[in-house]
Write a structure and sequence with these properties.
The protein is an alpha+beta fold. About 70% of the residues lie in helices and about 5% in strands. Strand 1 and strand 2 form a beta hairpin. The longest helix is centred in the middle third of the chain and has 42 residues.
């Protein structure tokens, strides 16, 4: 199928299926850039303290090294007293870098757990399949991207070294401690510059992946139609649902007939049940209506609950054709219905 045919935006189902398969936007360069920047910050902070503690540790260990074989007590004190001093700073650096990588991955993938991705796929072990991916258009493009990134990062590193060439050469004329501090500072500066360069490349790569992912998920008009048909479901199931909904609606309607004030009939073809509560309603309300067998059911229920049944052919037809259930009657029918209700109230008064 031609790619030009895919002109429709992906549906929610298509996006959900792609996500479940692990097809999400994820830039490794973004992780690398953040790890470089965070690593530079950590090494210039806790890393300096770690270096100082290591220097103290080696110095103290060499100065107090026993002349004979180290005893168990000496080794225990070395581990507990000295190594534990550097553990928090070392752990902070490791956890910081690890946490950065994990957090960036989770943020990019939206905390995705794609089960399909972790299922064994022996096709991935096939060297021919891997070779085909490598020599494909996409594989060649990825190779060109990697070479371009290498050239850009290499150019940034080269320019940094060229700018600091005299300072690097001058390290040989400095004492070890000062040279190490200067060298460390330059390393941190280089890491920061490379990290910022990688960040720009990562943003560009992320935008490109977003565009590629969007294009790959686009659908043809036919695919959208087929998916809509599937979403609508089986016609028989839909018909069964509608039938059940009608039955429930009829049950709700019939449950209100006993509370009606009057049922107006045609006399046997139509029946309309009216309820009017002067304290709660602005106008009389149609609570039930039906034709033929439904009209007969309404009349029978009304008689069972001593609801007056009044024959008024013109009014019954007008109400049935123009007023829906749970709808107030229009003002032009007030007078006609008032006469009926007045008659009903007189009957009730006489019966009392």
């Amino acid at each position: 199928m031609a790619a030009d045919d895919r002109t429709e935006e992906p549906t929610g189902k298509r996006l959900s299926e792609a996500r479940n398969k692990g097809q999400v936007i994820k830039s490794i360069e973004l992780n690398t850039a953040f790890v470089l920047l965070v690593g530079s910050a950590l090494l210039s902070g806790p890393g300096v303290i770690l270096y100082q503690r290591l220097t103290e540790l080696f110095t103290r260990t060499l100065n107090h090294l026993p002349k004979s074989l180290p005893t168990e007590t000496f080794l225990r004190d070395l581990i507990i007293t000295d190594i534990l001093l550097i553990a928090p700073y070392y752990g902070l650096i490791v956890l910081g870098l690890l946490g950065t990588g994990i957090t960036l991955t989770l943020v990019q993938t939206g905390f995705l757990w794609a089960k399909d991705r972790i299922k064994p796929d022996f096709k991935r072990l096939n060297p021919l399949t891997g070779l085909k991916r490598l020599v494909s258009a996409n594989g060649l493009f990825e190779l060109l991207k990697a070479l371009l990134k290498l050239i850009i990062v290499g150019w940034v590193a080269y320019n940094f070294i060229r700018e600091h060439f005299l300072a690097i050469v001058g390290l040989g004329q400095m004492d070890f401690s000062s040279a190490l501090i200067s060298w460390t500072g330059m390393i941190f500066a280089l890491m920061t510059r490379v990290g910022m360069t990688y960040m720009i490349l990562a943003i560009a790569d992320y935008l490109y992946q977003w565009y590629q992912n969007k294009q790959s998920l686009k659908m043809t008009k036919e695919e959208v139609k087929d998916e809509n048909k599937q979403a609508e479901g089986n016609p028989q199931i839909k018909a069964a649902i509608r039938a059940k909904q009608r039955r429930l609606a009829i049950m709700r309607m019939m449950s209100k007939v006993p509370k009606a004030d009057v049922v107006i009939t045609n006399p046997t073809h139509l029946a309309v049940a009216i309820q009017y509560d002067t304290k709660k309603m602005n106008a009389p309300l149609v609570v039930a209506k039906g034709a033929y067998r439904m009209a007969e059911r309404i009349v029978n229920v009304a008689k069972e609950h001593q609801v007056p049944v009044i024959q008024n052919i013109p009014l019954a037809r007008t109400l049935y054709n123009n007023v829906d259930i749970e709808e107030e009657i229009p003002p032009e029918l007030y007078i006609a219905l008032a006469e009926v209700l007045a008659y009903v109230y007189r009957i009730k008064d006489k019966s009392l």
